[in-house]
């Protein structure tokens, strides 16, 4: 599929506005950031959405939706004028609100009223949404915080490429780690590791580095280049070589 000309050279910035306010300190244990997006398109535009291991609460057009972690990229069609106010929860930290395994909403969205009931902010902004979250704040959950710390550890350490090695470093076993992630993150530790390592690949491309794909696949813990290419396309919506050509 050819790229939309409105993506080339960051041209989409003429049509969209983004801001990412941080949460107040008392909510930072649950919320990673807020995200506010507005757009103005004369013709429909297919926006690529690349997944991270966050659950999102999004307010749009008078309603609110909770989206679980997506295992692959998605497209959202933006048309006319519109906007969304979103809450990105820290990985692992939506479980206390959901009161159910976060894997139960992986790759799907639900009406926010199923979790929070009535009383959702009608005019969402940071102040209104934070007041709402404080009213629904759950009891601290040590397991949720543990999961969040492990995800942060994966994100920060490029040397983590295999679940077995991570489990050993944490003093646990693979099965226990998988259960923790299914319950609190919503997706497995292998996916999270691959997600952050592939993000680093895009950063190398953007820096103009010459990449040996076979060597890179081995470095990232893949059996071969084909498996690396498959995972990359699932997350970013295009091939490694096509992405590299645009950098």
Automatic annotation (TrEMBL):
Keywords: DNA-binding, Transcription, Transcription regulation. PROSITE patterns: HTH_ARAC_FAMILY_2. Pfam families: DUF6597, HTH_18. It comes from the Bacteria. One of its GO terms (molecular function) is sequence-specific DNA binding. SMART domains: HTH_ARAC (SM00342). Gene3D superfamilies: Homeodomain-like (1.10.10.60). Residues 148-246 form the HTH araC/xylS-type domain. The keyword Transmembrane does not apply. This is AraC-like DNA-binding protein. It comes from Saccharopolyspora antimicrobica. The lineage of its organism: Bacteria, Bacillati, Actinomycetota, Actinomycetes, Pseudonocardiales.
């Amino acid at each position: 599929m050819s790229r939309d000309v409105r993506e080339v050279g960051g041209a989409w910035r003429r049509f969209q506005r983004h801001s990412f306010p941080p949460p107040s300190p008392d909510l930072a244990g649950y919320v990673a950031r807020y995200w506010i997006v507005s757009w103005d398109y004369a013709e429909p535009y297919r926006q690529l959405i690349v997944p991270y291991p966050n659950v999102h609460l999004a307010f749009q057009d008078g309603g609110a939706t909770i989206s679980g972690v997506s295992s692959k990229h998605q497209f959202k069609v933006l048309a006319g004028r519109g906007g969304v106010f979103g809450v990105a929860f820290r990985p692992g930290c939506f479980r206390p609100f959901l009161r159910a395994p976060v894997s139960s909403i992986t790759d799907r969205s639900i009406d926010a009223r199923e979790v929070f009931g009535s009383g959702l902010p009608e005019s969402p902004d940071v102040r209104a949404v934070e007041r709402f979250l404080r009213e629904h704040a759950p009891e601290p959950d040590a397991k949720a915080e543990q999961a969040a710390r492990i995800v942060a550890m994966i994100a920060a350490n490029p040397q983590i490429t295999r679940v077995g090695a991570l489990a050993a470093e944490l003093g646990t076993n693979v099965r226990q780690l998988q259960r923790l992630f299914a319950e609190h993150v919503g997706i497995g530790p292998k996916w999270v590791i691959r997600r952050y390592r592939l993000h680093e690949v895009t950063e190398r491309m953007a820096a103009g580095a010459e990449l040996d794909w076979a060597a890179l696949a081995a470095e990232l813990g893949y059996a071969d280049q084909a498996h690396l290419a498959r995972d990359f396309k699932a997350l970013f919506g295009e091939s490694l070589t096509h992405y590299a050509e645009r950098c």
